[in-house]
Amino acid sequence: MELDEFFVTGEPLIYAGMVSIALVSAAIIFLLTYFKRWKWLWREWLTTVDHKRIGIMYILSALAMLFRGGIDALMMRTQLAFPDMNFLDAQHYDEIFTTHGTIMIFFMAMPFLIGLMNIVVPLQIGARDFAFPYVNALSFWSFFFGALLFNISFVIGGAPDAGWTSYAPLAGAAMSPGPGQNFYLLGLQLSGIGTLATGINLMVTILKMRAPGMTLFKMPIFTWSTLITSFIIVFAFPILTVALALMTIDRIFGSQFFTLTGEGLPMMWANLFWMWGHPEVYIVILPAFGIFSEVIATFARKQLFGYTAMVWSIIVIAGLSFLVWVHHFFTMGAGAFVNSVFSVTTMAIAVPTGVKIFNWLATLYKSKIQTTTAMMWALAFIPSFVIGGVTGVMLGMAAADYQFHNTYFLIAHFHYVLISGTVFASFAGLVYWYPKMFGHKLNERIGKWSFWLFVIGFHVCFLPQYFLGLDGMPRRVFHIVPEWMPLNPISTVGAFGMGIGFAVFVYNIYYSYRHSKRETTGDPWDGRTLEWATPTPVPAYNFAIVPHVDSHDAYWEMKRKDEVIYDETKLEPIHMPNSTGQPFIMMSMLFFASFALVFEWIWLAIAGLTGVLVMMVVRSFDYNDGYYIDVVDIKRTERSARGL
């Protein structure tokens, strides 16, 4: 292979990307070397199995991916701002369009929420760690190296360009030759392994490791949403795993699963993709519902209204999420009966979602609302999500969908649902639990500036797109015509407003690190659930004494009854898992094998997979059962953390 075939050449923007990557990498290496932090990086982060540190790494990765996906979005909106723009050519636009959707769903939304689950769920249920800490580390590095594999495609080999849904036959070897589409298939496959393992791990942790007295219907609502999401992951992700494997075999080994020439079926890809893809929408929305429920209850100073109804609505949504996938291709000729059935199931899913909206409003009713930044994100979510939901019901009508489906009306709908649901929730959750992670609050004044810039920008960006869609502007175009003015430049201005809002949010992290008052209580918001019962910073073992739980607002009840949470007379040695570099090494080998397979270097791929198998054998004979923290060390840690 020639060097100019290996590296992407000829695009000034990509050259700029290469220079940026080289400079940032050099700066990181210089700083780690200058401050002698390599051992610290290996010991504290690369080999950790602590769920809190793993959660922080997920969130940092997700913020980096939000930046990358956001830059892609701004480039697209710049190209679509005015007629006859030549900011991007057609090929580059297709690549940006593909990577934007893929990164935002797979490498931003999911890891952000999984990061919050990692940090919060064991604390909310009174557990000391995940059921399988080693597997949790393996899951993170699987996601991280999958994201890395996908992201290097725009400087090495060429980015995928068949859309984030990668429909066959467009994504097949004949119509998308070269390594680009292989980066998509293997990057998603590698990160998907980690997601599936996380789903199993969370499910076992929640079902088997809850504090004494915490029955299922005494769990916090965020833990409930995580449990149900884990069930969806376990049942949906194998479908994606199989679909990606079949297309990889098609492209690299010449099979014909998705091509008519070999008696395959292109439509099978659409079915498999959306049988995973629609439950995936709820994988990123249900945890968001859980976050908003926690935030609204805390800052309305009230117990969540209709707790049992909220739980059952999550369960019903999860069940229905597997029965609606055909609404993604009403226009592909399945027939009136099939379309009618899936139209009904699509509308039915609005009912339990509506129950949740009314329960949140009832929680807010006659409450003394504290307008913190986290609460503002939650309050902005409700009307924004309702707009997205109502237009979703419009799209759920099969006859109307023939008009709406291939237009910007659909683009506006799913961005209204996913941004107001998932992105608002990610920001709300990060602001809310930030003191528990880092020992200080984010600055409220800067946080509110970030909130207003982002939310106003969001509506200015996507509301005009409903009208552009009704005016006939099709999606997947890279040029606009004068008839679609002036709504397109307005939409572009809104997109840049969101970008500025995100930049202010990142600045707030830096500013707060420098200037915010350090937390001493561990309970800065006067919280309701068990995570606020731990001191800040949270010790490695989370709870010196595992609490006994009587309600789903367990900590609120403990405070109301003046119960003693920490009693030195009841301390016992605590068993903890050892740190290990095996997950990092194993997944780096799988990354190497996947990279080789992208370029169809079969022998190198086999060598990488052999390394992975060797690591599995090493793990099988690893009899290290962890270590105990003795009572003296626990006392010292607790007294220091609690200021005793």
Question: How would you explain this protein's 3D organization?
Answer:
The protein is mainly α and 644 residues long. The protein is 67% helix and 1% strand. It is built from 21 helices and two strands. The chain has a two-stranded antiparallel sheet with strand order 1-2. Helix 4 packs antiparallel against helix 5 and helix 9 packs across helix 15. The longest helix has 35 residues. It is globular. The chain starts with a helix and ends with a helix. The mean pLDDT is 94.
Unreliable segments (pLDDT under 50, ≥5 consecutive)? none
Radius of gyration, taken over Cα atoms and rounded to an integer in Å? 25 Å
Structural class: mainly alpha
Strand content: under 5%
Can you list the strand order of the major beta sheet? Answer: 1-2
Average pLDDT level: 94
General form: globular
Annotation field: number of helices: 21
Largest sheet: 2 strands, antiparallel
Total strands = 2
Intertermini distance = 66 Å
Order of helices and strands: HHHHHHHHHHHHHHHHHHEHHEH
Helix percentage: 55-70%
Quick rundown:
This protein is mainly α and 644 residues long. Helix content is 67%, strand content 1%.
Layout of strands and helices, then pairs:
Layout: H1 3-6, H2 12-34, H3 38-46, H4 51-79, H5 90-124, H6 133-151, H7 180-208, H8 221-253, H9 266-299, H10 307-321, H11 336-348, H12 350-364, H13 373-396, H14 398-404, H15 408-438, H16 444-470, H17 487-515, H18 554-560, E1 574-576, H19 582-598, H20 602-620, E2 627-629, H21 631-642
Antiparallel strand pairs: 1-2
